[in-house]
Amino acid sequence: MKRAAARPPVVSTDGVIDRITENIYYTVIDARYVRDFTIWAKFADGSEGEIELADELWGPVFEPLKDVNYFRNFSVAEYGTICWPNGADIAPEELLFRPSGYRRVSSHLASDL
Q1: Which residue, among 32, 26, 104, has the nearest Cα to 71 in the 3D structure?
Q2: Cα separation values, 64 from 72, 77, 85, 102, Å
Q3: What's the pLDDT at 97?
Q4: Sign of the dihedral through C-alpha 48, 54, 57, 62
Q5: Is 70 exposed, middle or buried (0-12, 13-18, 19+ CB in 10 A)?
Q6: What is the dihedral of CA 73, 63, 35, 113, to 10 degrees?
Q7: d(Cα 62, Cα 85) in Å, to the nearest integer?
Q8: Is the N or C terminus of the chain more exposed, i.e. has fewer CB atoms within 10 Å?
């Protein structure tokens, strides 16, 4: 799997990691419907790829998303992840750090490992 190059932790003058800045890199900046329950997303750290979400659609808020016509009606929320009209959303770090086995590609910032 290719991923954007790791960046060093951001450290303030008093030696404390700036957690707010760290979280910015989990932000979804673009997303598109691909097929079925698969989206393509690009993150602020440069990572991008297809993410299969069929296994994430459980619980009452996600029930409407099991209809692919409703599922494809998502948008990128102002708070940096994908969301649907019924208020359902998925944390951007959950999208970025999917378990292995999902097809992922990343930007030109990644090393070819």
Answers
A1: 32
A2: 11, 18, 10, 23
A3: 80
A4: positive
A5: middle
A6: 110
A7: 11
A8: C
61 within some domain: yes
Cα–Cα distance measured from residue 1 to residue 7, given in angstroms and rounded to the nearest whole number? 17
What are the pLDDT digits (tens) for 10-68?
Answer: 444 544 444 444 556 689 999 999 999 999 999 888 888 899 999 889 999 999 999 99
Under the phi-then-psi rule, with left for phi > 0, alpha for psi from -120 to 50, and beta for the rest, what region is 101?
Answer: left
Joined together, the tokens standing for residue 107 give: 């930007």
Select from 86, 113, 110, 105 the least CA-distant residue to 41: 105
Assign residue 88 the CATH number of its domain.
3.30.2020.10
Dist. CA 35–CA 50, nearest whole Å: 10
Looking at residue 56, its amino acid is E
Helix, strand, coil % in the chain, rounded to nearest 5: 20, 25, 50
Residue 2 within a domain: no
Of 109, 89, 100, whose CA–CA distance to 1 is shortest?
100
